[in-house]
Amino acid sequence: MKRLLDQVVAEAGSVIIGKEQTLRLALTCLLANGHLLIEDLPGVGKTTLAHTLARLLGLQYQRIQFTSDLLPADILGVSVYHRGEETFQFHPGPVFTQLLLADEINRATPKAQSALLEAMEERQVTIDGQTRSLPQPFFVIATQNPAHQIGTFALPESQLDRFLMRIHIGYPDAQAERILLGGEDRRRLLEQIQPCLSLEQLRNLQQQVARIHVSDALLDYIQALLKFSRSSPRFHHGLSPRAGLALINSARAWALQAGHPQVLPEDVQAVLSATVAHRLHSGSDTGLEEGSGLAQFLLESVPLP
Going by C-beta distance under 8 Å and a sequence separation of 6 or more, which residues neighbour residue 276? Predict the structure, then answer.
């Protein structure tokens, strides 16, 4: 399985150059059956990364361009009255897919953003009093621009908490940028990508992730991380039990990629920032410290078991 996952990362690396760690984190998130938030400046490849993952996983996917005038019905769907049959017929929205790309999610209003809450948490939507299940598997890959940019609406904490991971791409290094500038158009490369995983293989991998062993000593380490985040004045509030479960699931998926038969402390350390940084807030009066800095402080403050 490690060889298969390495192939997925290698294929993605032919489009997203020089970002192996980022690609592995993104794949880890989906193997753990979680939703992924990609936050960075415009033009660094957020949407391209999302498209690449969708094609490599071979899943049905839809893209929604989030804008300030987007309505919940544009995401979930709407019931339309048919005069001849004298009935209402439901027309499903783009959320009824296996992989939903929510592009620039923080450019939509909070009302539109909230339309995804039930879908992300329970893999279902309730419309006109009727609950409809979403296809399985169901992933949301959302991209967002930094909150300081014009025309953005900050995601509420309840929405952020539904993303298993938040990752950043960043600028490419000089060598990778040279290849980008002188190479083939990324859109053409995307068209040439073939799926590396079948739906059955993906489900099998997710089942294997759930079976990765977590020792009592490792659970002690994760509990120590949670306890420190709740007791240190550096943090506005501590990590929730759901954050602890997210950390375990992410570490299991990372361990599977690394070929480890059980979760090791270095697996937890590899995914900690991406898994908890968006759940941490500074306890200082200014509140200006970024989540990644808080995650690093947490990592350095709790000794290994």
Answer: 229, 239, 243, 246, 247, 291, 295, 298
How far apart CA 204 and CA 219 sit, in angstroms, is 25
Whether pLDDT at 114 is above 80: yes
Is-contact 232 282, C-beta < 8 A?
A: no
Q: How distant is the alpha carbon of residue 28 from its chain centre?
A: 9
| Tokens matching residue 278 | 């968006």
**Which pLDDT tens digit goes with each residue over 276-304?**
999 988 876 544 457 788 899 999 999 98
Residue in 70, 38, 40, 77 with CA at minimum distance from that of residue 54: 38
Q: What residue segments make up the domains of the chain, in order of their start?
A: 17-200, 212-301
| Single pTM value for the model | 0.90
**With contact defined as beta carbons under 8 Å apart, do 181 and 40 qualify?**
no
Residues in the chain: 305
CB atoms inside a 10 Å sphere around CB 135:
13
- Given CATH 1.10.8.80, say whether it is the number of domain 212-301: yes
Reported as a single tens digit per residue, the pLDDT across 101-111 is: 999 998 888 88
pLDDT at 94: 94
- Whether 293 and 278 have beta carbons less than 8 Å apart is answered as no
**Taking CA 107 as the corner, what is the angle to CA 105 and CA 110, rounded to the nearest 5 degrees?**
80
Element (H, E) at 127: strand 124-127
Domain at 17-200, CATH class: alpha beta
